[in-house]
């Protein structure tokens, strides 16, 4: 339970509503005998109520106007900051990430609300000249209506903030199905939106399994769906939502490469790839999964990576000396450990591995493998602290290797040569390319989105001014209001 006053329930039409599903518990990944949150999931009846409430609330929310909606988002940002420590503690207890990582996520989420609040005063359209001197041609944006939001557990506050804040700003109402592993954090955000003064029905939260997500995206009143999660679930949603012609935004998995050239700054490259592969226990869509070394050698780089990884400290995220928390669940731990075993059976070798902590928990040792690209782990996304080192003779070969998966989310290159950096920016199949920086991390005011199976071809970017393109319909108005002067 997040606190004594907020129940762990769905939130529908301004009220906390207990679901009708069987009592479900999520265990603390650092103390697997302790349930952090226990709740009854919502079912089809609660889903229908939430969609009806959101549809009923839509006209008044639209009529409020964008500046007033922006003020409410700013109020939510203030409350996120006021309650930051409580949210961070619940996030660490549910997700396993370290408190330092949780605190950073909470701060970034408050910034996200502030960013969209401030955007309320940006230009909302453009004016074109007309062939008729007395006419004005203007673009206007109209909300989609009710938007379905489905989010994963790995950034349980930041990803919902990326979606819900711009959806609300643009005048949509929201039905949000949050991740089953992090219900407590979603309840705290819901409470904040309510306390900020957002009226009943405008945002509704369902604590529910994936099957209810599937029903949500199938509903004819859901005019747009924004989803972040795995490729298989994203493709299932794509078939449904495109089939009925609603708007869709997908932010899916990645298999991100970091290319290291012989002219790279060795320490910068080593610390960046370790940080990008192991930070948040490797549970970032943007994490580096493959390190591609161009040319022979790189002994100093590999030595530095080995030293850094083998000295990483694992343990409960509440311990300030810990750098790597547990993974989110026992099933995640089992999947990652068996992917490492499979890689070894397929010809991989362990180059470096951190020590396991003495305490019980869903721990996976940060692991660096060497082996061929043909290993399953180099093609499928393994969502944990594991990275594989590959070799390429030339930069062009390295780019081809980096591009040889179904994914296209992020990539990084480490070099001191501008031409090599430009080649990578141009030719890597990735929506975000970093030069001399980790493949992880993005800024709220710059577009973020993938290519290939990591996304959906449409107005895909999260963040920045691009959100308006997804969360609205753009219309063009030809206005002849004044008589022509004679
Ligand atoms: P997931 O796809 O299993 O679940 C995501 C959400 O979808 C959850 O809320 C889940 O309950 C719901 N869901 C499950 N089945 C569904 C169905 N049939 N219909 C509708 N909804 C359904 O992903 P996860 O394990 O929660 O998150 C990890 C994945 O998310 C990784 O693949 C990671 O790369 C990806 N991710 C991508 C980004 C990005 O911005 N591209 C960011 C974070 C995470």
Write structural notes for this entry.
Strand 12, helix 9 and strand 13 form a beta-alpha-beta unit. The chain is globular and about 75 Å long. It is built from 14 helices and 19 strands. It has helices spanning 44-64, 66-82, 84-95, 99-119, 158-169, 183-195, 210-218, 231-243, 266-278, 299-310, 330-345, 395-402, 418-427, 467-471; strands spanning 10-12, 15-17, 24-28, 31-39, 127-128, 136-143, 146-150, 173-177, 203-206, 222-228, 247-251, 256-260, 288-294, 349-353, 367-370, 386-392, 410-414, 432-435, 472-479. Residues 1-5 have low confidence and may be disordered. With 486 residues, the chain is of the alpha/beta class. The protein folds into 2 domains: 10-252 and 455-477, Aldehyde Dehydrogenase, Chain A, domain 1, CATH 3.40.605; 256-435, Aldehyde Dehydrogenase, Chain A, domain 2 (3-Layer(aba) Sandwich), CATH 3.40.309. A 7-stranded mixed sheet has the order 14-15-16-13-12-17-18, with helices on both faces. It has a 5-stranded parallel sheet with strand order 9-8-7-10-11, with helices on both faces. Bound molecules: nicotinamide-adenine-dinucleotide. Nicotinamide-adenine-dinucleotide is lined by residues 150-155, 159, 177, 179-180, 210, 213-214, 228-230, 233, 236-237, 251-254, 285, 381, 383, 409, 450, 454. Residues 150-155, 159, 177, 179-180, 210, 213-214, 228-230, 233, 236-237, 251-254, 285, 381, 383, 409, 450, 454 line the site of nicotinamide-adenine-dinucleotide.
């Amino acid at each position: 339970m997040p606190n004594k006053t907020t129940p762990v329930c769905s939130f529908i039409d301004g009220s906390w509503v207990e679901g009708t599903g069987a009592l479900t518990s999520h265990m603390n990944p650092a103390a697997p005998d302790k349930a952090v949150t226990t709740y009854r999931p919502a079912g089809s009846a609660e889903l229908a109520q939430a969609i009806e409430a959101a549809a009923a609330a839509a006209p008044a929310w639209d009529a409020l106007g964008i500046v007033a909606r922006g003020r409410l988002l700013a109020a939510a940002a203030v409350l996120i900051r006021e309650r930051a420590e409580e949210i961070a503690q619940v996030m660490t207890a549910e997700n396993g990430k370290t408190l330092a990582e949780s605190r950073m996520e909470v701060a970034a989420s408050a910034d996200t609300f502030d960013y969209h609040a401030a955007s309320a005063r940006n230009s909302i359209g453009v004016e074109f000249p007309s062939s008729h001197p007395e006419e004005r041609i203007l673009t206007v944006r109209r909300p989609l209506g009710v938007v379905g939001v489905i989010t994963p557990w790995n950034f349980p506050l930041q990803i919902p903030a990326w979606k819900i804040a711009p959806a609300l700003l643009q005048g949509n109402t929201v039905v949000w199905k949050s991740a089953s592993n992090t219900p407590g954090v979603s309840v705290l955000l819901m409470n904040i939106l309510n306390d900020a003064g957002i009226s009943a029905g405008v945002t509704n939260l369902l604590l529910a399994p994936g099957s209810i997500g599937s029903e949500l995206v199938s509903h004819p009143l859901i005019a747009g769906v924004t989803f972040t999660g795995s490729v298989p679930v994203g493709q299932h949603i794509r078939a449904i939502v495109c089939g009925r012609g609603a708007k869709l935004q997908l932010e899916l998995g990645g298999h991100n490469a970091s290319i290291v050239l012989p002219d790279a700054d060795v320490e910068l490259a080593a610390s960046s790839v370790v940080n990008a592969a192991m930070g948040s226990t490797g549970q970032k869509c943007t994490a580096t999964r493959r390190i591609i070394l161009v040319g022979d050698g790189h002994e100093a780089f590999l030595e530095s990576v080995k030293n850094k990884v083998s000295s990483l400290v694992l343990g409960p995220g509440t311990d300030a000396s810990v750098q790597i928390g547990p993974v989110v669940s026992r099933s995640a731990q089992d999947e990652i450990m068996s992917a490492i075993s499979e890689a070894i059976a397929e010809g991989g070798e362990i180059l470096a591995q951190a020590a396991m902590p003495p305490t019980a928990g869903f721990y996976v040792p940060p692991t660096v493998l060497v082996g061929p690209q043909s290993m399953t782990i180099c093609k499928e996304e393994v969502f944990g602290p594991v990275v594989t080192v590959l070799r390429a003779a030339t930069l062009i070969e390295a780019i081809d290797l980096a591009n040889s998966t179904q994914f296209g989310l992020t990539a990084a290159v480490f070099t001191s040569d501008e031409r090599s950096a430009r080649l990578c920016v141009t030719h890597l199949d990735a929506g975000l390319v970093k030069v001399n920086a980790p493949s992880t991390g993005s800024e709220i005011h710059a577009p973020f989105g993938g290519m290939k199976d990591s996304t959906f071809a449409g107005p895909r970017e999260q963040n920045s001014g691009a959100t308006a393109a997804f969360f609205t319909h753009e219309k063009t108005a030809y206005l002849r209001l004044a008589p022509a002067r004679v």
